[in-house]
Design a protein that fits this description.
mainly alpha, Alpha-lytic protease prodomain-like, Alpha-Beta Plaits, 2 domains, three-stranded mixed beta sheet, 8 helices, 3 strands, 68% helix, elongated
């Protein structure tokens, strides 16, 4: 199974579970007079649409290069990650606005039965977040990592709702707004996660550099190929779940063009054989000691 397929399967699990949780949370929130729980349900609905966009992005990114897209369709995965970040920020803004409105207008205290529902939600969402995060690390999918943070934000806001409802119930009259304050605190966490997700997504969509660890690993692989004297230059950008690379290698200047060409292909083969998904590699061969 390819990395795209692994990531897509994880996203489908997210969609199915979020659909069930959204129905439970919104229904319980309405019956139990808890806007924090309704807000949680709204975020789960938002998570469904975000997950759908991630799934579509992963499926498009899997398509091979064609005449219109000679470098492939990998950018669709980065665009899905950008959408995921923006949708998280939008959900946080919607919940924050309604929370402030509720704080300014007194309303009925939440019901006790909303508490065990929230406990179940927290356990399920945190478990789903860890599963998606593990698959994100396995596939290097930024969009899937964004999906994982959607789940974690949901678990955190559910935890805030649990605390707020408990305070509202224990405090009695005058403490009804604790439920809404909890939803507002949860919004801050949503915004924080959304900001960091947006920063990463913009970096990748703007062809930002890969991590220094990845650069060093590519240099080490290239330098071990017989005939390579040194790695002179290296550029790399992420596309989909892999990386495109331009690498300049220096070889002995007295070698024939054919021999230098062979060494360049050996460098390509060594990099593609690694587990880092170096997809498109352009090797520029230079005589040792010459910098271009």
């Amino acid at each position: 199974m390819s990395h795209n397929q692994v990531a897509a399967r994880a996203v489908l699990w997210s969609i199915v579970l979020n659909a069930g949780l959204a129905v439970v949370k919104v229904t319980a929130g309405i019956l139990g007079h808890s806007y924090a729980l309704i807000a949680d349900g709204i975020e789960s609905v938002n998570d469904i649409f975000a997950s759908l966009m991630v799934w579509v992005g992963l499926k498009v990114a899997e398509k091979p290069p064609d005449d219109d897209h000679p470098y492939g369709h990998g950018r669709a995965e980065q665009l899905a990650g950008l959408f995921s970040a923006l949708s998280l920020l939008a959900a946080g803004g919607t919940i924050a606005w309604q929370s402030v409105h509720n704080i300014m207008h007194r309303h009925t205290s939440p019901e006790w039965f909303t508490l065990p529902i929230l406990v179940v939600v927290i356990i399920v969402k945190e478990g789903l977040s860890r599963y998606a995060m593990r698959k994100s690390d396995e596939t290097t999918s930024t969009a899937l990592k964004g999906d994982a943070w959607h789940h974690r934000a949901d678990a955190i806001t559910s935890g805030a709702a649990l605390l707020g409802i408990s305070v509202a119930l224990l405090g009695g009259d005058g403490y009804e707004m604790a439920d809404d304050v909890a939803a507002l605190v949860g919004c801050f966490i949503i915004f924080l996660n959304g900001f960091f997700m947006l920063k990463t997504a913009l970096h990748e969509n703007m062809d930002g550099a890969a991590t220094e660890e990845l650069y060093q690993e590519a240099r080490d692989i290239g330098a071990t190929v017989p005939g390579v004297k040194m790695i002179e230059k290296l550029r790399m950008k992420k596309s989909g779940l892999g990386y495109h690379m331009d690498i300049h290698v220096q070889v002995e200047g007295s070698l024939s063009v054919a021999e230098g060409h062979r060494i360049g292909h050996d460098v390509q083969d060594a990099l593609k054989a690694s587990d880092r998904r170096f997809l498109d590699i352009i090797v520029h061969v230079e005589p040792f000691g010459h910098a271009d």
